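Course assignment 3, question 2. Fill in each field.
Student: A.L.
Task: Predict the tertiary structure for the chain below.
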Amino acid sequence: MRASLFIVAVVVAASTALASTANATAPASVTIAGTVTQFGPPPDFRGTWSSGELGDAGPFVETELHLTGALANSPVVGVFQAVIVFTGSQGTFTVAQEAQFTSFPKGTWQVISGTDAYARASGHGTFAFSPPDSLTFTGVISKSG
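Answer field:
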């Protein structure tokens, strides 16, 4: 009898765990088009963004910037990490990026946190800056829950 109750409890727990992941969406392609409106160190690096795939838009602000010694000592080449917060009508999501700076920054990004509709979002991809003020993120994003 105890063995039967244990098996039933395990089956219920397993089906509950599976049901909680059933709400996850498959990763979908995303493009986030940004326009830099102010240049400078955080929090002065800011602008606006929009994404048709997300159906959202709003302001963004860089909240952290970490330079490597190579970038600090060379005006043309190096690596940096930055954190950017995107705010939209559906909530906020925060992206960590790592970039190589040759002539213009380009690199990778990953969603590290979110609120509201973006609370359980995950995503990653590449980004590039194009003069004079274009910042484009491409990749995949999914939401769960």
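Instructor remarks: Strands lie at 28-38, 46-51, 56-67, 78-88, 91-101, 105-114, 122-130, 134-142. The chain has one domain: 25-142.
Grade: pending
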